[in-house]
Amino acid sequence: MRSNKTMLDRKNLKGMVRALKEGEILWYAPDHDYGPASSVFAPLFAVEQAATTTGTWDAGENVRGDDCAVCSAAQAQRHGV
């Protein structure tokens, strides 16, 4: 498998889900600050940092936990990880 086969726009969630369903590897870094209306703020090393929840929600709705390298603690427990 060759890396960096294609580049997907950050807003192309359908393309991301399609790539995952086709067995491709996807890197999505939801660490951008899109402002208070589109971000949540959580402590990171004792500093409030902005993060988006869209990618996490979308992956949780469309990808099985065992296909996802990053999953919630609840998903990990359900899948025995």
Q: How would you summarize this macromolecular structure in one to three sentences?
A:
The protein is an alpha+beta fold and 81 residues long. Helices cover 30% and strands 12% of the residues.
Q: Determine the mean pLDDT.
A: 68
Helical percentage: 25-40%
Assess the beta-strand content as a share of residues: 5-15%
The number of helical segments is 3
Largest sheet: 2 strands, antiparallel
* Number of strand elements: 2
Return residue spans where pLDDT drops below 50 for at least 5 consecutive residues.
none
Query: How would the global form be characterised?
Result: extended
- From the alpha-carbon coordinates, what is the Rg to the nearest angstrom? 14 Å
What structural category do the secondary elements indicate?
Answer: alpha+beta
| Amino-to-carboxy terminus distance | 26 Å
Protein name: Lipid A biosynthesis (KDO) 2-(Lauroyl)-lipid IVA acyltransferase
Subcellular location: Cell inner membrane
InterPro entries: LipA_acyltrans (IPR004960)
Enzyme class: transferase
Question: Any key phrases for this structure?
Answer:
81 residues, alpha+beta, two-stranded antiparallel sheet, 30% helix, LipA_acyltrans
Topology:
Blueprint: H1 13-21, E1 40-44, E2 47-51, H2 54-62, H3 73-78
Antiparallel strand pairs: 1-2
